[in-house]
Design brief:
The complex is a heterodimer of chains A (330) and B (274). Chain A is an all-alpha fold and 330 residues long. Chain A contains 14 helices and no strands. Chain A has a domain of 226 residues: MetI-like fold (Orthogonal Bundle). In chain A, helix 1 packs across helix 4, helix 6 crosses helix 9 and helix 12 runs antiparallel to helix 13. Chain A is globular and about 85 Å long. The longest helix of chain B has 37 residues. Chain B has 274 residues and is an all-alpha fold. In chain B, helix 1 crosses helix 3. The radius of gyration of chain B is 22 Å and the shape is elongated. The two termini of chain B are 16 Å apart. The chains are: A mainly alpha (330), B mainly alpha (274). Chains A and B meet through helix 1, helix 6, helix 7, helix 11 and helix 12 of A and helix 5, helix 8 and helix 10 of B.
Chain lengths: 330, 274
């Protein structure tokens, strides 16, 4: 059906291009809607910032003072556009709790978080895809069942449980890995990698099971389709069947699986950073939430959501590009 | 259905879930000490006096674990039931009425799902006061987006079937169609989903409590107990791993049962795997 060799007349790439443009537009729209939700939606919630900010010591006079000081007495839409305008230029205002510049903190921590997630991804993606293929190769036999049960258990493990387990054994009992995972600017790449060994291991363990199960399901559904059966019946070897018929169709679902799990990784970073006291965005955000430091919370929320939306968009675009039916329009 | 056809793994899963619920229901009877009672030194090791040792304030860990089951299971169960009620009602309304209502609800759902759940929860909880019912409501609303997506997909398939059409022509109202025609037919896939949502709610609540934003001390809950005892890890005290292990074990048990339920329904429908 959708064999890559079936060619068809080429009339440029309009369908693919329009699909991609539509997807880009949708992401931009989503991003704006998310910024509205995070800023305007949050203010519409019951309970006002000034009294939660002050907590026990909220006298009417103090509330009025703090409202004026934080500029909360101005209309919401003015503040939203100011905030959005600043955010686009990389200015997220100042923290209520510390009075420091939010952007300066974020620019340092965002790099740390992305580094952590990227190293975890580099290890987890090939491993998960490989194991998923292994499970398909030995489907319903011992290796597959073993992988199935272990991964089912691994999905259910909370990040902090895995994290503390690793700390107890590798940092405390054997003393082979450092804890806490502190990094600072003057560290070399090798030192950095050593410092984040345990958080990376935690993230890999947590994300790999999901990715592997989804890879297995994606490949299995392709291997059970009719054109594979036809190829097998034609008598061409298993390897050629996989390279010429299965692989081109499997790229899209696998890339999709990978991108979805990378998006998950970005969120998984939050808990792992708190466990390992790692100076990243996640820890910054959690600290800000406990003291109700709204500018920091909103900035972090927007950035996390943006990265997540971006990765989902990349997943969709790659699967559009990898779809043989769209690449060779009739 | 014969009991013998249930695989041993599913029995283990059901036994684990039952154990957790028994612990939760009879906590005051089962627990050897009180929830907030200080009964020994800080981080005593496991022994005959305190089976699982004591925690960071010298409270009996086993008793805290049993009382924690009460809080964790109650909040997770309440949140998942509420999320199901919201998700199913809205998704069925969307599937039956279609048109602008469907469009509006679906796009709102897409928007909510485009923000990672944990991040969304952090932003919302930063603005709202710390109350138990607010926590349950936030968890339920955020989770209902997944139920909505599944519920709508299932209901749209059923809504075009002949018996629904017949009911419409008979002049039945929307409410009747939703509850008498669609709900009974959608129940089986949604039941497995309920198990998954419950497992997720347990993990999510524990994560929030671990981050200090869920259940507030001194009330015991499993995620909060991990947080309380986490300082002991660097001294080689494994107290934080016990409630963490309990969370993991409960989630594994629920997932095993759900996995079996899903396989059972797919083989009942004549799926290719036996």
């Amino acid at each position: 059906m959708s064999d890559a060799s079936s060619g068809g007349q080429r009339r440029g790439l309009p369908p693919v291009a329009t699909l991609i443009l539509q997807r880009l537009g949708l992401s931009a729209l989503l991003l704006i809607a998310v910024s509205l939700l995070i800023f305007v939606g949050i203010e519409a919630l019951p309970g006002d910032f000034a009294s939660t900010y002050l907590g026990q010591s909220a006298t009417p006079q103090a509330i009025a003072n703090i409202t004026a000081e934080l500029g909360l007495d101005r209309p919401i839409w003015t503040r939203y556009f100011e905030w959005l305008g600043g955010a686009v230029q990389g200015d997220f205002g100042t923290s209520w709790a510390s009075g420091q510049d939010v952007s300066a903190q974020i620019s340092r921590r965002l790099g740390n978080s992305l580094f952590l997630a990227a190293v975890a991804a580099v290890i987890a993606v090939p491993l998960a895809v490989g194991l998923g293929m292994l499970a398909v190769r030995y489907v319903d036999r011992l290796a597959d069942r073993l992988i199935n049960i272990v991964s089912l258990a691994a999905i259910s493990l909370p990040e902090f449980f895995v994290g503390y387990l690793l700390i107890l054994f590798f940092a405390v009992k054997f003393g082979v890995a450092p804890f806490p995972a502190t990094v600072y600017d003057s560290m070399s790449l090798g030192e950095r990698l050593g410092a984040i060994a345990l958080p990376v291991a935690t993230l890999v363990l947590v994300v790999i099971a999901h990715m592997m199960r989804m890879t297995r399901a994606a490949i299995l559904s392709i291997m059970s389709s009719q054109y594979i059966e036809t190829a097998e019946l034609k008598g061409i070897g298993a390897l050629r069947t996989i390279i010429h018929h299965a692989a081109p169709n499997a790229v899209a679902p696998i890339v999709n699986v990978v991108a979805l799990n990378l998006a998950y990784l970005v969120v998984g970073v939050v808990v792992v950073e708190v466990v390992f006291v790692y100076p990243g965005m996640g820890q910054y955000m959690v600290d800000a939430v406990t003291v109700r430091d709204m500018p920091v919370v909103q900035a972090c929320g927007l950035i996390f959501a943006a990265v997540y939306i971006l990765l989902n968009m990349v997943a969709d675009i790659v699967s559009i590009l990898a779809n043989p039916r769209l690449r060779h329009p009739r | 259905m014969r009991l013998r056809s249930i695989p041993p793994s599913a029995w283990i899963g059901m036994a684990g879930i039952a154990l957790a619920f028994v612990a939760a229901l009879f906590a005051p009877v089962l627990a050897p000490y009180g929830e907030r009672e200080i009964v020994g030194a800080v981080w005593e090791p496991m022994g005959p006096e305190h089976w699982l040792g004591t925690d960071n304030l010298g409270r009996d860990l086993l008793s805290r674990l049993i009382f924690g089951a009460q809080t964790t299971l109650f909040v997770a169960l309440a949140a998942s039931i509420l999320s199901f009620a919201i998700g199913i009602c809205l998704s069925f309304v969307a599937a039956v009425t279609r048109g602008i209502v469907d469009q509006g609800l679906s796009r709102l759902n897409d928007l909510m799902m485009s923000i990672p759940t944990l991040i969304f929860a952090l932003v919302v909880l930063a603005a709202l006061p710390q109350k138990l019912w607010i926590l349950i409501l936030v968890m339920a609303i955020l989770d209902s987006t997944r139920v909505f997506r599944l519920g709508r997909a299932v209901a749209v398939d059923i809504a075009v079937m002949d018996f629904v059409e017949a009911a419409r022509l008979r002049g039945e109202g929307t409410i009747w169609i939703i509850f008498r025609e669609i709900l009974p037919n959608a129940l089986s896939p949604l039941l497995a989903e309920f198990g998954l949502r419950f497992a997720f709610a347990v993990l999510f609540l524990s994560t929030l409590s671990f981050l200090g934003l869920g259940i507030q001390p001194p009330q015991a809950d499993w995620g909060g107990m991990v947080k309380d005892n986490s300082d002991g890890i660097i001294f080689g005290v494994p107290a934080a791993l016990i409630p963490g292990g309990a969370i993991a074990a409960l989630a594994v048990c629920v997932n095993i049962v759900v996995d079996w339920l899903l396989h059972r329904t797919s083989s009942l429908k004549g799926g290719r795997d036996g």
